[in-house]
Write a structure and sequence with these properties.
By secondary structure, the protein is an alpha+beta fold. The strands form 6 sheets. The chain has a 5-stranded mixed beta sheet with strand order 6-5-4-1-7. A 3-stranded antiparallel beta sheet has the order 9-10-12, covered by helices on one side. Helix 10 runs antiparallel to helix 12 and helix 13 runs antiparallel to helix 14. The chain is globular and about 80 Å long. The two termini are 42 Å apart. Its EC number is 3.4.11.9. Keywords: Aminopeptidase, Hydrolase, Manganese, Metal-binding, Protease. It catalyses: Release of any N-terminal amino acid, including proline, that is linked to proline, even from a dipeptide or tripeptide.
């Protein structure tokens, strides 16, 4: 990794002479090999570059949808200035950063994904005027493009403001001027908090936590019902995820020779080739690790005869993620006890999926799945019935542990800031997308169950679209019945 002139706390580079009051000095690494920049080199680097402005850009695919979303936001908060930041780079270690992912609220309203961006809706007589504030192209005059660690020659070309206007259908301005402008702003203001400390500081005397929370809640609830573009993106995410699961099955022998990390890496390759990334840390839980709900260490052994609980999802380039789980026999065949537990979870999932209907209560699919699992636990003698008593006291939760699903979208647990009455206590509508994912987990040290159960964890999860007349399983491309899973695995292994 090149290390000559990325910025940190030390010596100011001299590429363009004394900087103006509004400019920060471009700095070089404390232990870089060059002490500075000669006047001759600085002058040389200013010229001899071709014009690379892009003139034939088309609007992004979701430009019409993002415009409609901004219009809905404008209608909800008339007369108020609304500020939605993308966020800033976060340090991973020393002078390296984590890969940037824009805030969901910002990406949902603009389609833009670059760091430091801010969407501002300024109130006008008939609604709002939107402006997207971005960093412009790297400056060739002051040397930023080749001396700054975030300059064009270090991290790649940024779009010009003119290009951004064409792509996103929003007037674009220089974000470096925004904080001063916001400090001078008058009238009511709301900001989405938690993403850009500089923007929040500029508004500190103009906003309140309660009003800002209302903005976040509205933007969360706006995503409860997906538009056609979003549904298409979620299907793309699921389709890539199906292929990722197939990839994993084909290399289980190599995972046995190494560890769960081979599974993680295999799925990640599919996610990066066909999408933006994984939508969340992949859970590649073999053997008793399947009983740990969010096992993302993925450093354990993969053994023939054990189960693999693979919970993973590809995230598309527009940030929509799948969230699918299958529990697979590593050697291709479920044992008798594994099949017994697996089939019980499958039956519970079938009941849950059947309860996903427009007009149904959101909780219905959870209740339906939990009832089946409670019935099985009573039938197996693991908990004392009757079933109604078990459900009333929540006794099944020792082995079911978690809720049976959640909303899905640009966040894997989407719409999390929505009001309880709009989400968990709400009613399903066509266009909602949610997971149905019951599970049974018998911990390796659970002395209340027979020894043969211990260390077995099973979860089956699918992504379900609520339709006008019922539901559609977006992840139906992956088999779920135990016998079909075994046949599918055998076909993939040849």
């Amino acid at each position: 990794m090149a290390d000559e002139l990325t910025p940190d706390e030390s010596i100011a580079a001299t590429a363009a002479g004394p900087e103006t009051e509004s400019e920060e000095p471009i700095k070089q690494r404390k232990n870089g090999l060059y002490p500075g920049v000669s006047d001759e080199l600085a002058e040389n680097m200013k010229s001899g570059w071709a014009d690379t402005e892009l003139h034939d850009l088309e609007p992004i695919a979701q430009a019409a949808e993002t415009a409609a979303r901004r219009a809905a936001l404008s209608a909800r908060f008339p007369g108020e200035r609304l500020v939605i930041p993308a966020g800033n780079l976060k340090t991973r270690s020393n002078d390296t950063e984590y890969a940037f992912r824009a805030s969901v609220e910002y990406a949902y309203l603009t389609g833009n994904q670059t760091e430091d961006g801010v969407l501002v809706l300024e109130p006008v007589a008939d609604g709002h005027e939107a402006t997207i504030y971005l960093l412009p192209r790297s400056d060739r005059e002051n040397g930023e493009f080749w001396l700054s660690g975030q300059g064009e020659l270090w991290v790649g070309r940024r779009h010009s403001l003119t290009e951004a206007e064409k792509l996103y259908g929003i007037p674009a301005s220089d974000v470096r001027e925004l904080a001063d402008s916001l400090r001078e702003a008058t009238g009511p203001v709301r900001v989405v908090r938690g993403y850009d400390a500089g923007i929040e500081a500029a508004l500190t005397d103009k906003v309140t936590a309660e009003r800002d929370a209302e903005l976040r809640v509205f933007l969360s609830e706006a995503r409860l019902v997906k538009d056609e573009f979003e549904i298409g993106e979620l299907q793309k995410a699921v389709d890539s995820t199906v292929r990722g699961f197939e990839d994993v099955v084909k290399v289980l022998d190599k995972a046995e020779a190494t560890s769960e990390r081979y599974i993680e890496g295999t799925f990640f390759l599919r996610a990066r080739v066909e999408g933006n990334d994984v939508g969340y840390g992949s859970i590649c839980a073999a053997g008793p690790h399947a009983c740990t709900l969010h096992w993302v260490r993925n450093d354990g052994p993969v053994r023939s005869g054990d189960l693999l609980l693979l919970d993973a999802g590809v995230e598309t380039h527009t940030y929509y993620t799948a969230d699918v789980t299958r529990t697979l026999p590593i050697n291709g065949r479920y044992s008798e006890i594994q099949k017994k537990i697996y089939d019980a979870v499958y039956e519970a999932q079938e009941a849950g999926i059947a309860a996903v209907q427009p007009g149904a209560k959101y909780r219905d699919f959870h209740d339906a799945s939990q009832r089946v699992l409670a019935e099985k636990l009573v039938e197996w003698g693991l908990v004392e019935g009757p079933v109604e008593r078990v459900l009333e006291l929540g006794l099944q939760r020792r082995w079911t542990l978690h809720g049976t699903g959640h909303m899905l979208g640009m966040d894997v647990h989407d719409c999390a800031a929505a009001r309880v009455e709009s989400y968990v206590d709400g009613t399903l509508e066509a266009g909602m997308v949610l997971t149905v994912e019951p599970g049974l987990y018998f911990q390796a040290d659970d002395l209340t169950v027979p020894e043969e159960y211990r260390g077995i964890g099973v979860r089956i999860e699918d992504d379900i679209l609520v339709t006008e007349d019922g539901n559609r399983n977006l992840s139906a491309g992956l088999p779920r019945r135990s016998g079909e899973v075994e046949s599918w695995m055998a076909s993939l292994k040849g």
